[in-house]
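Figure 2 data, in text form.
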Amino acid sequence: MYFFAHTSEPLRLLPMATQVSSGSWKNLTSNNSLQAVMKENFRLHPPDPFLLPHESREHTELLEYQNLVGTKVLVNAFAIHVDPSVYNNPDSFDLDRFLARPHIDHMSKSDPYELIPFEKGLRMYPEYKLANTMVALMLAKLLYVFDGSLLESQTEVDMGETISLSVSKKQPLLLVPKPRFEISLESVTQN
């Protein structure tokens, strides 16, 4: 959502969306530009800012804190995602962050813990691959079919969030969709 506020970003992604929407479905999850958009969105706005509680099985010491057996630990994924020691300029939306480092992969079970929107390891959500594919498909189709712009009364997107069990926007995203080409009902029903 965030990149729609920046007019250069959707135009930069248009060739990628055209490739995906014209039938190259096998490259949907391996397209670096599309994955960079999704990773940056997940980094700045993780669906669950706090991961599921973990319980220690043995006595451990972490950063001079003693964790006894049975201690419940909450991981703040959002704090990791905006940590300046992990990311340069952590509060800005930057596609080049993940284009330069495509090995950072939230879909991998062996990835470093820099990007963890869907848990990690054995506790990773079982639907994460389906969710990632569906988001990529929806995003590619939107970028291919529509050119989104803000309402005339808006100058920027309000990215304020409310936090409960999951994160949602305080204000809905309002865009004016402009079709990139003529769409007829007949062409939709033929496909």
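Caption note: The chain has a mean pLDDT of 75.
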